[in-house]
Structures are given as C-alpha cells and as structure tokens.
Design goal:
Layout lengths: L15 E4 L31 H14 L4 E6 L9 H14 L5 E8 L6 H9 L3 E5 L4 H7 L9 H13 L3 E8 L7 H11 L4 E6 L22 H18 L5 E2 H11 L15 E4 L4 E3 L10 E4 L5 H6 L1 H12 L3 H4 L4 H4 L22 H10 L1 H12 L7 H15 L25
The site of one iron/sulfur cluster has 10 residues, from loops.
C-alpha cells in the first residue's frame, strides 16, 4: 500500500467516484445490465473488496478531495451483498480519515431487494442517501428486472422500499428508460410520484451495444434499448406534467440540470458538460477506470494500491478522456442551437454518424433535440424567475394563466393550445361524453 506523499499537480480539487465493492456481482440478472459482463475482466476473483483495500480507498479518496464536502458512493453489481458490517467499517474509516469540519455524505445505489429493517436503521443513523432502482409499475419493472432464475423482482423491491420509508431514509428513484417502459412516461412518473411518494427521481437511458464483449463497441443496439425519439417523447411527457403541477415538489434530475444550463450555471452533470472525466469507477480490487461506463481494458488507469488516486485522476490518459468529449464533437453538434444544454451527451452513446457522415454523434440526438426545443419557453421563464430571486415554481401559475387565456380564445378548428398537434375540437375542445 502507498505511504509516500502523492503528487497533487493536475488533480482536480474534487471528483466523483463510484466504488464497486462486489465488482459486477449481483443477486439479480437484469436483462439489459451492461455491468454483468464485466465479471469476465476478473476471472477467478472472489469479487469482494478487502478491508485493506477499503481503508486504502477511503484514505486516498478523502485525501484527494480538497473541498469541505464530498461523498462516498457505493454501487455495483449489488453492494449490499457485502453485508452490513462492511459498510459499518466504511463509516468508521471515513470518521478516522476525514479532516476536521469535512462533511462526507454516504450514498449507495441498490436494487433494494436485500434491504431490511437493520440496513435501514443503519442508513438513517448515518444519513445515507439511497438510490433505489425501479423501472415503473410492476409489469414495466418486471419486463427486464429479474433474478438469475428469471423471476420478477418488483415485490422484493417494494418490500425494501417500505423499510426505507419506515425508517425515513432519504432515497431517490433511479429509473432506466428502455423499450418496455419508454412509451409510458405518465404511467411511470405518476407511479413514482403518487404511489411511491418519491420526491427525487432520476431517469437514465438504456442504450446497450449489441456485441459479445459487453464493451462500448459496435454501432447497433440491443432491442431492449430505448429508441432516440422514444427517449425524447418520454421526457416531454414527464416534463409537461411536472411543469404544470410539480415544480418545487418533485425533483427530476434531468430537469434541474437543464434549468442550470438555461440559467448559465456551470453544468452539474457530466453528461451535459462540455468535458467530463471527473466521474470515475473503482473496482473491488483497487483498479481505477475512467468512468463507470468504461470499465474496460482501454480505460484502465491503474491500481490505487500502486499509484495514488490523485495521480491517476491527474494522469494524461484521464485528462485526455475528459477532453475528448469536446475535442471529438462533430460540427453538427457545434452548430446545434441546443448545444449549451446538451453538449453532445455522454460519449458512451456517441457512436452514430451525423447527417453529413461525421462520426461521433449521440445515438439519442433526435430525442435530446426534440426535448430541449420543447422545454425552451418554460425553461426561459423559470430561468428569468431565478434571476429575479423568485421561485421557479411560479411557472405553474404563469403557464396556467397563459393556457386559460389560450383556451378561452381558441377556435374549434384551430390547433389545440395544449400542443398535441390535433385540432381543438378533436382534443381539449371535444364535447364531454353524454
Ligand atoms: S463518459 Fe459519460 S458518464 Fe462517463 S464521465 Fe463522461 S459524460 Fe459522464
Ligand atoms: S441535440 Fe444532437 S446535435 Fe445538438 S448537441 Fe445534442 S447530440 Fe449534438
């Protein structure tokens, strides 16, 4: 293990790191999971982070964060397979190594199936923020989120969620959008808001390349992946509901990040930033990779038992990884009117060609473009409200008043003011059934 003073030169003052104490090992076998194939990277490994590595990681990571607040983020595979004592030790080690007055937030992304009262009591005691993976109501969730025997996982996840709620643990929902739920934005969103009473929701796209390696190679995607237009329509559906009744009550990560970009604040999510490279992934044995989406040999930076995390993050290889996001952006993106919000998206999905044949366009481009155009007007209003020190939630009254006026004056054959594209008489102007 390292005991010499690390070189700080070039290392950013803060960066994110997702640690995978069980590597890719999970008790479920979600059919779209890109991480399960990573088991092949470590043949014969027990896939358990040792206590020595746990301390080395926490010591180095805390040392590397030259800011007053940082987070220790656990992910998988399924991290709860490590057992509760592992995380008890991690909390103790954070207390041992953190600087006075430094605040460390503990976070964990879990499938929720193994949570019980003891876990949730521990989470509450140490203020863990728990991300729980749920893909919508039972039939949509169970479409792909199954265990190794092919059995649905929904009921077990709901049971875990009940323990989180009972102990009042802070949680957010991570929902992947894919072929089975992508056409049902309102059903999914309302389920989270009304039935699960979630206040924080995050959506991510399932875009999985169809190949044998499990790496980011090839240009075709699996049929479980979300379609670009479907992705855009999904967000449009959720946004239209959210912006009329939930602003300030329900937090949808994508919308918060987009509002930040409309305000002109520094982008808060790597995917929508000009460059990236400050969200790394640590395997169970101390191997550090450029990003959670690039745990593959070409993006291996080194092992933290041999080279300090700070030096690996500052390495030319990692710097280049982060800059490549910008340096390889096709001119189609550079000239795009929503570049300020999109920045080309995540490099993992930039594997299609632009209309004029340049490589490096995001597979989800059509969806992003449609969505960012759709939200432009309300985002401008919310950005103006923020600049006037007013609450973005006022948008709901503003839109309500605009729509009442528009509905009051619309002709039967005019386009419906709701934006559906249908005539008013066939949409909101339809006579109520007898
Ligand atoms: S590759 Fe994608 S997820 Fe990874 S750091 Fe870059 S933008 Fe973020
Ligand atoms: S919307 Fe499409 S063209 Fe515009 S920046 Fe994003 S990926 Fe590029």
């Amino acid at each position: 293990m390292i005991d010499s003073e690390p070189t700080r030169a070039g290392s950013p003052p803060a960066f994110h790191l997702l640690a995978k104490p069980t590597g890719a090992v999970c008790n479920l076998a979600c059919q779209y999971c890109f991480f399960l194939s990573k088991e092949k990277l470590y043949p014969d490994s027990p896939f358990r982070m040792t206590d020595e590595m746990l301390e080395e990681y926490i010591r180095q990571y805390v040392e590397a964060q030259r800011v007053p607040e940082a987070s220790i983020a656990w992910q998988g595979g399924e991290p709860t397979l490590m057992g509760l004592d592992f995380f008890r030790r991690s909390v103790e080690l954070v207390e041992k190594h953190k600087r006075p007055k430094m605040t460390i937030q503990h976070t964990m992304q879990t499938n929720g199936t193994l949570l019980d009262d003891e876990w949730c009591e521990f989470f509450k005691e140490h203020n863990f923020l728990i991300g729980i993976s749920i893909d919508g109501p039972a039939e949509m969730h169970n479409a792909y989120r199954v265990d190794k025997g092919g059995n649905p996982s929904f009921d077990r996840v709901m049971r875990g969620l009940e323990f989180l709620k009972k102990r009042k643990v802070d949680f957010n929902i991570l929902c992947t959008v894919h072929a089975a739920n992508g056409d049902y934005p309102l059903e999914v969103y309302r389920f989270f808001r009304d039935e699960l009473e979630a206040e924080f929701v995050q959506f991510i796209a399932i875009v999985v390349r169809d190949n044998e390696t499990g790496f980011q190679e090839g240009k075709t995607v699996t049929d479980r992946s979300v379609e670009p237009e479907q992705w855009g329509n999904f967000f449009i559906g959720v946004f239209d509901e959210w912006v009329r009744r939930d602003v300030g009550q329900t937090y949808v990560q994508f919308f918060d990040v987009a509002l930040g970009n409309w305000v002109g604040a520094p982008p808060s999510l790597c995917v929508f930033s000009p460059t990236c490279g400050t969200a790394l992934a640590l395997e169970h044995n101390g191997d550090l990779y450029s990003c959670d989406h690039f745990v593959e040999p070409n993006y291996f930076l080194g092992n933290i038992a041999e080279t300090h995390i700070m030096e690996l993050v500052a390495s030319d290889k990692q710097q280049k990884f982060g800059r490549d996001k910008l340096d390889t952006l096709p001119s189609y993106c550079q000239e795009c009117d929503v570049l300020f919000a999109c920045h080309g998206g995540c490099p993992k999905n930039r594997f299609v060609e632009t209309p004029d044949g340049q490589p490096g366009l995001n597979y989800l481009c059509a969806g992003y473009k449609a969505f960012f155009h759709h939200i432009d007007q309300p985002m401008r209003i919310m950005a103006d409200l923020l600049r006037q020190d007013r609450a973005p939630a006022e948008i709901m009254q503003i839109l309500g008043a605009q729509e009442r006026e528009a509905f009051a004056t619309v002709g039967r054959n005019d386009p419906c003011p709701c934006g559906s594209g249908r005539k008013f008489k066939h949409c909101h102007g339809r006579a109520a059934p007898e």
